Amino acid sequence: MAKFSLDDADEDPPVAAGGDKRKRGDSPTDAFEGAGPPKARNLGGGGREREVEVEGAAGCGAEADGGISVRIDPDVLDCSICFEPLRPPLYQCQNGHVACFSCWSRLCNKCHICSHDANFARNIALEKIVESVKSSCSYSKWGCCKLVNYAQRTTHEETCLFAPSLCPIPGSGYRGFTGRWSGHFLTRHSSDGQRFVYGQPFQVKCEASVPFLVLLGEDDHLFLLLNNNMAPFGHAFSVVCLRTGDLNWKFSYKIKATSMCNPENRLQLQACVTNTKQWGGLYPVEAFLLVPYGFCNSSNLSLTVSIERYAAV
Question: In the Cβ-directed half-sphere of 55, how many Cα atoms lie within 13 Å?
């Protein structure tokens, strides 16, 4: 029996949000702003059909030797009631109407389509088809080459290394990809970010009560200068990078603090940047610069920061 892989990644990738059910006709680009990757060729004209290839293709998006190529409407792989992917066991009425088992179990032995009393029976053939379908990840154009079971596609995308990161600005809700943040910050948070050049020290000023400051690298990598108020000692500063996918670059940083009362008193930290998919309020504990309250005035902090970029070995 041939095994097929469903390639549904021709549209811009959707946000993988746990618990959100996909409805027919939903646009996967609705949750994104700004520039995205170039549109791939439209294989299905104006509909939702996508080209599928046999499982076992070499590389990302390559077609296996001797494989077959067909087109399939993804809707046929979804439950007609809840619109979630069909998962075995699958049951059907006498007229062949199929829905997922959890929905059938709530229908009280009456088909939702023909409204007749139904003696449900397993559809083994459809179960084998559903189990054989492999889908490319929605983030394939961003680097993910995995083929996953269609029914498990949403689960995979929720934890995919190439999934977008959540904008750290409270209430934003925007999800962006590594190296594509400047458009969002220029249009939505123009006063919240500070650009810098790798290897060149720059001054930052932040309010003592602000938990972080957004820093945008020249290659659009997004960094956060975190400010953890550790009463009664002082402020703990560290740097994290919001990024996903292949970590081809590594980053290190230096933070220097000078006492406002006595400029001869200085503190300095050099450490590796911590990578994270999104910042949820947790601060790095391995490396940080603890600046006593006496180094600054009551409301403002002034630091010298530099970030270095180097290729990962």
Answer: 16
Instruction: Using the structure block, give the residue that is written with the tokens 């154009």.
Output: 141
Establish how many alpha carbons lie within 13 A of residue 310's alpha carbon, considering only the half-sphere containing its beta carbon: 7
Residue 83 contacts residue 76 (beta carbons within 8 Å): no
Tell me, what's the pLDDT at 228? 93
Which H/E stretch holds residue 134?
A: strand 134-136
Q: Which two tokens stand for residue 102?
A: 């959890």
Of the candidates 106, 94, 65, 98, the residue with the CA atom closest to the CA atom of residue 80:
98
pLDDT score for 298: 64
Q: Write down the pLDDT at residue 204.
A: 93
pLDDT tens digit string along 1-39? 444 445 444 444 444 344 444 444 443 334 444 444 333
- The label of the residue with tokens 């104006």 reads 46
Q: Which amino acid, one-letter code, is at 25? A: G
pTM, two decimal places: 0.60
Q: Report the distance separating Cα 301 and Cα 308, nearest Å.
A: 22
Sheet of 202-207: strands edge to edge? 202-207, 300-311, 249-258, 266-272
111 touches 95 (CB < 8 A): yes
Mean pLDDT of 94-109: 79
First to last CA, the chain: 43
- According to DSSP, the residues that pair with 207 across neighbouring strands are 300
CA distance 189 to 292: 30
